[in-house]
Amino acid sequence: MNESRIHGKHDHGSAPFRPIIGAMHCHDVLFAHWPFVPEKLRPLIPTELQLDTYDGQAWLGVVAMRVTGMRPRFIPSFLGLSYSGVNVRTYVRHSGKPGVWFFSLDIDSRLSLLAARTWYGLPYYKAHFEHRQKDQVLHFDCTRTHRGAPEAKLRFEYAPVGDVFRSEPDSLTHWLTERYRLSTVSPQGKLGFGDIHHEPWPLQEAEATFRINTMGNQIGLKLPLDGSLLHYSREREMLIQSMDFSEQSQLDAHASQQA
């Protein structure tokens, strides 16, 4: 993705443009979402953020992927880091701008984890992954191994179905997947925001069979093994801007920032 194209591509209001600090390619992405009443998720995010809803419904997402070419700006992609990852998220607004709140991000590369925590200040955890493909079905297995962190495990198989499409702007699919602002709270209690930039996701419907899913246990939410809304994307390149930590949050020391 050409860096010059990101200026003005996503409307984040009048916030100053921050430098691009990194890039990465996401592969075999599965978006799995479950609806919740807002009262379940509202207490889990900082009071400075508004829980975003679609037709009055809040959503929790578990997003699994492979990443290649994670690297600082100006480093060639073939020198970048690779890992498997899964994140648990919900959707928020701040000053009218839509974004993502991450409860956890599990990856299997310690070096990538250290780089990501340093660059983004997000709640990354070390985990063991098995990610393989047999015929058209992808098999995904994640077990969190981070010392002192809450236990979490995810095991499922998934496959894309149907034609590739781009989500319609006012659709639930677009609302869930086309999010370009990240938010977090630093260990020092600062509320931070960072923007990502990419072309719209090329999506397909997906089928998945969940065997184990305890990714929501950390925040007191039991996720069912069925009933999720599923989407798949084969590949997308992302550019990442630096985080801006300029607001003090009333959220206590972010539980997911455990060492």
UniProtKB/TrEMBL annotation:
Q: Which SUPFAM superfamilies match?
A: Acetoacetate decarboxylase-like
Q: Which Pfam families match?
A: DUF2071
User: Which Gene3D superfamilies does the entry link to?
Assistant: Acetoacetate decarboxylase-like
Listed transmembrane segments: none
The source's domain of life comes to Bacteria
Q: Which residues belong to the signal peptide in this entry?
A: none
Protein name per UniProt:
DUF2071 domain-containing protein
Species: Desulfonatronum thiosulfatophilum
